Backbone:
């Protein structure tokens, strides 16, 4: 009997250590779960804020692109005014002046065609990628400078003051309209590049949030497993304590038990040794619980 009690005591001590170990592991996994949950939530919050910033920059870009289109219409009207004013003055030019002006116009028209073609490509998004878009914008600025250099502030011919004044005014309006187009295009490009940058950051933060969520699921699974094992260990520990308490109670009350009846010690000994109890013995053990 003492051997059985010692065995149960050893098992109780071992089970108590296991329960403590499982509890510690559960608490550690729960701590990691809370840590990754906080990380995931912070990343998801950052993603939501970045998405709002992307939408904001897209709105700015679209508004500036519309302004570019509006300014181009105004610029086209100004270009027409310049052409009309120039025709009035060119009527009084000498043949040599007309030849030089014609040559200069041809050069200017070639540059303008290239410039207009590039603008259409930019509007249609044909230069994809931040690097190509930047190169296209830089080329557009260079072409614009060439156009500006080809247009004299004053036409060096004899013209009456009214015609000259009309031409100068048209030139200034043309230049102002083109500056507005360039400015709006620049703002649209800046908003577009920032939008792409925020989009990249959104993808990066979202990937990190998904990884944190995946880790969170794993840590929670480990915490749940450790908790389950802790509960099982507690139940086993409780059962061993009940058996030991029952054995001690049975020993104290042994004098009152009839001689033919098997003691709890004997019944538990048979159970632990793997023997099969009879129905009467099982009922007897149950009545002693």
Residues:
């Amino acid at each position: 009997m003492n051997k059985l009690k010692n065995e149960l005591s050893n098992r109780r001590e071992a089970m108590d250590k296991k329960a403590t170990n499982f509890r510690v592991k559960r608490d550690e996994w729960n701590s990691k779960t809370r840590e990754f949950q906080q990380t995931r939530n912070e990343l998801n919050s950052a993603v939501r804020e970045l998405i709002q910033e992307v939408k904001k920059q897209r709105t700015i870009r679209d508004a500036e692109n519309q302004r570019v289109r509006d300014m181009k219409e105004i610029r086209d009207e100004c270009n027409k005014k310049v052409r009309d004013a120039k025709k009035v003055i060119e009527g009084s030019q000498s043949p040599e002046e007309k030849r030089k002006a014609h040559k200069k116009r041809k050069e200017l028209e070639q540059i303008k065609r290239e410039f207009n073609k590039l603008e259409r490509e930019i509007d249609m998004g044909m230069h994809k990628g931040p690097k190509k878009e930047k190169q296209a914008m830089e080329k557009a600025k260079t072409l614009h400078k060439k156009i500006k250099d080809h247009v004299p502030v004053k036409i060096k011919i004899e013209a009456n003051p009214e015609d000259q004044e009309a031409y100068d005014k048209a030139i200034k309006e043309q230049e102002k309209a083109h500056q507005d187009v360039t400015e709006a295009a620049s703002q649209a490009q800046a908003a577009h590049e920032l939008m792409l940058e925020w989009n990249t950051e959104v993808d990066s933060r979202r990937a990190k949030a998904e990884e944190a969520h995946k880790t969170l699921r794993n840590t929670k699974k480990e915490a749940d497993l450790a908790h389950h094992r802790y509960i099982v260990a507690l139940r086993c520990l409780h059962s061993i304590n009940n058996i030991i308490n029952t054995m001690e109670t049975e020993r104290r009350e042994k004098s009152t038990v009839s001689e033919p009846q098997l003691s709890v010690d004997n019944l538990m000994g048979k159970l632990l040794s793997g023997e099969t109890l009879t129905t009467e013995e099982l009922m007897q053990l149950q009545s002693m619980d």
Remarks:
- The first helix runs from residue 2 to 90.
- The chain has a mean pLDDT of 79.
- The radius of gyration is 46 Å.
- The CA atoms of residues 148 and 175 lie 8 Å apart.
